[in-house]
Amino acid sequence: MTGTRARRYAIPRARRGPGAAAAAPDVWSRDFALFFVSRAVARLGDTMAPVALAAGLLQHGYGAGAVGLAMAAKAGAFAGLVVFGGVVADRFGTRRLMIGADLVRLVTQALVAVLFFTGRVDLGQVCVLGVVSGAAAAVFQPGVASTVPRLARDVQGANGAVRIAESAAQLVGPAVAGLLVAFASPGSVLAVDAATYAVSAVCLLLLRLPPLPGAAARAAGPGVRAFRSDLVEGWREFRARNWLWGVIAIWCVYMIAVWGPTVPLVATEVVRHHGPRAYGLVNSALGAGTVVGGLLALRLRPRRMLRAGAIALFTFFCFPGAVGAGLGVPAMAAGAAVAGAGLSFWGVMWATSVQTQVPADVLNRIHAYDVAGSLAMMPVGQALAGPAAGVLGAGHVLLASAVTSVVVAAALLAIPAVRALVRTDAPSAEVV
C-alpha cells in the first residue's frame, strides 16, 4: 500500500489550537499506561494457568492426554473463532468487547478454580469452560491491534514496550505458578488468573479511546448478510497486500517446520540429556532474549521494518541448532537467548507494520486473519514432530528446523513487497 493511501486511512492527528487537546505523548500517557498494565497483568495470568491446570488434573488422577485435551479445548476455540472475532470487533467497537471478554474469562477461570477447590474436577466441565474462555479470547485478541495505534503516536515504541512486558510475564509467570501450586494449591493459581482478568477489565474500562474512522458505517448494517460481507471485505483487504499474505504464507511453513517441532523436541531433548533444571535455564534464556529484542525494538528505527525484522529472524537457527547439535547447556542457553532476541524484534517490526499500513476500519479483521494464519499450522508442526523424531531422530529434526528457519528468513527477504515496504507510522489521535 502506498504511503498516500496509508495516510488517508490513518487515525486523524490531533488538532492544535484554542480548545483543542494536546497531542498524546509518543508512547507513555495515562491511557497507554492503563493498556500496558492490562496486557502485562493478563499475560502473567495466562502463563500461570497452564501450570496450574496440568498440576491440578494430574493430582486428581487424570493423565497427560487429559491435560492436552483441556488445553486444546481453549486453543481450538480461539483458533477457530478469531476470524469472526475480528469482524465483531470492527462492527461493534473494541473496548466494550475486550472488557466483556475479560469478564467472561474472569467467570470461567473462577469456576475452574472452584472445581479444584471443591475437589469435584470433571474433565468435561473443564473442557467446556476452556471452550468458552477460548471464544472470549477470540473476541478480545483482534482489538489489541487497533488499540495500540490509537493510544500512542510511536506505534513501534508502544509495541516494543508491550512485548517487553509480555516477555517478562512469560519469565515470571510459570515460576510463580509453580511456587503457588507447591505451597498452596492449583485452585489458588487459577483464582489468581481469574483476578488478572478483573484487573485487565478495570484498566480497559478507564481507557479513553478515540473513535475509529468508518465506525458508524459499519454499525449501520446488521444481519447475517452484512456480517458475511464484512468477513469477505476483510479477506479482500488481506489478499490485496502482497507483503501481508506473503508473510503469512511463509509463516505457515515456519510454524510447521520450525516453531512447531522446536518447542516439544527441545523440551524432550534437554530434559532427557540434562534434566528439568537445564530445560528451565534454557527456557528462561529464551525469555530473557525476547526482553532484549523488545528493548532493541525501542531503540532501532529502521526505515524498512520488515526487512530489518527478517534479518533479525536469521538468528533463530541458534536455538534448535544448538540443541540439535548436542551442545552443552551454556551454549544452548546462549543460542536460545540470541534466538529470542531476533524473534522478538521481528514480532515488533511485524506488528507495527500491520498496525500502521492497514486501514483503521479493517485492522481488527486483518489482525484476526493474521493470528488465525499464524496459529493454524502450529499444531500441525507439533503433531508431526514426534513421528519425524521417531524416524530421523530428534536431533536431526531440530537441525532441519534450524536450516529451515534460515530458509524462511531468506524467503521473506526474497519477496520484493516485504523487503521494500517503507514504514508509515500512524499519527496520534485526539482523545475524546
Task: Record the SSE blueprint.
Elements lengths: L2 H7 L20 H30 L4 H29 L1 H25 L4 H29 L3 H29 L2 H20 L9 H5 L4 H16 L2 H33 L1 H24 L5 H9 L4 H7 L4 H29 L5 H14 L1 H15 L1 H21 L1 H4 L13
Helix pairs in contact: 2-3, 2-6, 2-7, 3-5, 3-9, 3-15, 4-5, 4-7, 5-14, 5-15, 6-7, 6-11, 6-14, 9-15, 10-11, 10-13, 10-15, 10-16, 10-17, 11-14, 12-14, 12-17, 13-14, 13-17, 16-17
Structure summary:
By secondary structure, the chain is mainly alpha-helical. Helix content is 80%, strand content 0%.
What does this structure look like?
It is built from 18 helices and no strands. Mean pLDDT is 81; it is low at 1-25, 214-220 and 426-432. It has helices at 3-9, 30-59, 64-92, 94-118, 123-151, 155-183, 186-205, 215-219, 224-239, 242-274, 276-299, 305-313, 318-324, 329-357, 363-376, 378-392, 394-414, 416-419. The chain is an all-alpha fold and 432 residues long. Helix 2 runs antiparallel to helix 7, helix 12 (305-313) runs antiparallel to helix 14 (329-357) and helix 16 crosses helix 17 (394-414). Helix content is 80%, strand content 0%. It is globular.
